[in-house]
């Protein structure tokens, strides 16, 4: 399981109902997997718009992604996922945040 929480696994797998249940039960929306990824980043990186929308509406930090500084918006842009880019921008993700892949500004 790569040291992932149940919420991270559900978010990465696109299981929006499971994500809802876990969040309702108090799962940490900011908890990071062993790879340093937040559940929102995992959902965006896997292309799961419904999960990303739910986590966004549930208060997940839109600017936290990987521990090295790559954000969910970076991931959506890199993959050309316009619907996710739109969702994150509408949620006021920081469109000016710049990071190199090694985590340096």
From TrEMBL:
Keyword Ribonucleoprotein appears in the UniProt entry: no
SMART domains named among the record's database cross-references: ANK (SM00248)
InterPro entries assigned: Ankyrin_rpt, Ankyrin_rpt-contain_sf
Stretches forming ANK repeats: 2-34, 35-63, 68-100
Protein name: Ankyrin repeat protein
Species, as recorded: Alexandrium catenella (Red tide dinoflagellate)
Assigned keywords, A-Z: ANK repeat, Repeat
UniProt keyword Repeat, yes or no: yes
């Amino acid at each position: 399981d790569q040291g992932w929480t149940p919420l991270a696994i559900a978010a990465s797998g696109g299981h929006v109902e499971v994500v809802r249940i876990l969040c309702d039960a108090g799962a940490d929306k900011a908890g990071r997997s062993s790879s340093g990824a937040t559940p929102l980043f995992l959902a965006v990186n896997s292309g799961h718009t419904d999960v990303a929308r739910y986590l966004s509406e549930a208060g997940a930090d839109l600017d936290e992604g990987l521990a090295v500084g790559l954000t969910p918006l970076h991931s959506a842009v890199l993959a050309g996922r316009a619907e996710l880019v739109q969702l994150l921008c509408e949620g006021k993700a920081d469109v000016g945040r710049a990071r190199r892949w090694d985590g340096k500004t």
